[in-house]
């Protein structure tokens, strides 16, 4: 069931662009026309977000740099494919960054450390510690708060899938639960987060 | 029905990017058939993006932007889906500098022919409605650009004149802390991008869509200041992709870089009107 949420809690991932003189959406439109200066401006604006997310997934610094380079090259090449009607520019770019990072993880599957129990504890614990160490975004606080509304299993499954880049079948193995359970927990968890974060549905 | 219910449960995993290729393909097929699933996935994908925004922002490595700016200068773009017009490069600062005054500047019939050759036939225009250039060329150019800049592997540069040495010089230039760039349109179509570093006293041009010249002719680079034009090397157009050329000699603050068409071996002074002139200020 999709619930109506009060308007003031609606959150658009791209709303932060509203007050800027040049929106990321209009920069993308100019980039699609070959405007290198617009690309430069977009890079300045969003690269810390892109790199931060990729680093979260890959951890390794030089691999993260390579993937960030791939992402921005893809932005340059396919800016014309961005459709504003389907979502904001930050949504388009961060979705791309996440997918590229996950692809990189899956490609180097064999070399990845899969020490199950320790891995899970580290991952989940790491999430809680970030706020104490570095600059904290508003979204970080909101997500941290919303995460507390999830069951332990939902939270672990969502965290491993999104920030760990694990597939749903890997999450099932890591958490020692049936794959069907993981599917439903991922969906329940995301619906709960959506409603807690006030994402319009 | 139970199949559909089972598929619908994948919405969360899909939004999180947690499906393998097989399941993702199955789910995307299902998405085509269910408005409800599409709506749910859209909202869950937005939610996933907020998870992404919740990651701690981190400044990327300092050299990344310089490499990307150099890379995009040689990387073709996709045209809009289903569009009939290829994206048109927009006007750039310094765009009105095509005709810098030069000593003995005189239009050459060969240059004019060479430039006309670069304008596209209707059939080519149709092909480039999807790509700036042929798909195979695009992929090669992109692969070359990636090979050039990723992981210090400098092979695959479109212009093979100096191979490794050129690639190294170019990479050093575009990684310089004071690297600057300026874009100007080339007579006959396309753009030329000048990269320069006064610290390294080095400059390079990247020219897209440069037509090949007939036998007996060559492109020549010039450093131009108020005292006149100094030769900075001759070169041929790359067989495919963008032409990259590091200039001979040292760039001085305020120099304009020009390109003319000259007899093979080059000239001491420009004998034709430049096809492009790019100010470095």
From TrEMBL, chain A:
Feature: compositional bias, Basic and acidic residues: 1-14
Q: Does the keyword Transcription regulation apply?
A: yes
GO MF annotations, alphabetized? DNA binding; sigma factor activity
Alphabetically ordered keywords of this record: Sigma factor, Transcription, Transcription regulation
Domain spans labelled RNA polymerase sigma-70 region: 42-109
The record's similarity note reads: Belongs to the sigma-70 factor family. ECF subfamily.
Q: Which PANTHER family match?
A: ECF RNA POLYMERASE SIGMA FACTOR SIGK, RNA POLYMERASE ECF-TYPE SIGMA FACTO
Organism encoding this protein: Lacisediminihabitans profunda
Q: Which Pfam families match?
A: Sigma70_r2, Sigma70_r4_2
Q: Where is this region: Disordered?
A: 1-23
CDD domains noted in UniProt: Sigma70_r4
> Could you tell me what this protein is called?
Sigma-70 family RNA polymerase sigma factor
Under Gene3D superfamilies, the record lists: 1.10.1740.10, Winged helix-like DNA-binding domain superfamily/Winged helix DNA-binding domain (1.10.10.10)
Residues forming the RNA polymerase sigma factor 70 region 4 type domain are 141-192
Q: Which InterPro entries match?
A: RNA_pol_sigma-70-like, RNA_pol_sigma-70_dom, RNA_pol_sigma70_r2, RNA_pol_sigma70_r4_t2, RNA_pol_sigma_r2, RNA_pol_sigma_r3/r4-like, WH-like_DNA-bd_sf
Q: Which GO terms describe its biological process?
A: DNA-templated transcription initiation
TrEMBL record, chain B:
Q: Which GO terms describe its biological process?
A: regulation of translation
Q: Name one GO cellular component term.
A: plasma membrane
Q: Which residues form the Anti-sigma K factor RskA C-terminal domain?
A: 140-275
The UniProt keywords, alphabetically, are: Cell membrane, Membrane, Transcription, Transcription regulation, Transmembrane, Transmembrane helix
One term of GO molecular function: sigma factor antagonist activity
* Location within or outside the cell: Cell membrane; Membrane
Q: How does the record say this protein sits in the membrane?
A: Single-pass membrane protein
Q: Which Pfam families match?
A: RskA_C
Transmembrane residue ranges: 136-158
Cited PANTHER family: ANTI-SIGMA-K FACTOR RSKA
Name of the featured protein: Regulator of SigK
